[in-house]
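Take a minute with the sequence and fold tokens given here and flag any structure token that looks odd. Thanks in advance.
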Amino acid sequence: MTAYVTASEFATLGPTGSLVTFTTGEIEDAILVASAEADDYLACRYTLPLTAWPVSLKKHVSAIAARNLMRNRGMNPESEEAFDRPANEAVKWLAMVADGRLAPQGVTDSKVVGDAEFDVSLAISLPTRSDPFTR
């Protein structure tokens, strides 16, 4: 499974503040879960795994991971909006990508464009033969 953001990128892209209390392992686990959720949408449009992706995908995966971390720990109701809103926007963004309404620049999937061995189409016709017994 592909993690679309690293823990160090998460620190700069994700919300700050109460997330500093999580370990790197907890953050990496949350990133893997959020990346898997993103794959559910991306698979509608791309052949997975992706081999390249833009910072916008990293940002949205970070938002989902941050919400998951806070929900697992138990979120203060006053801070809930700060984590839910970006994660909900991320899910909307992913849905637009899946539906083809949004085409993020820099996404490269692992779709095979062609097989070099069978890339050329040939039509071979045998020469006509004259059969002296038929007319």
Summary: The chain has four helices and no strands. Helices lie at 7-13, 24-42, 55-73, 80-99. The mean pLDDT is 85.
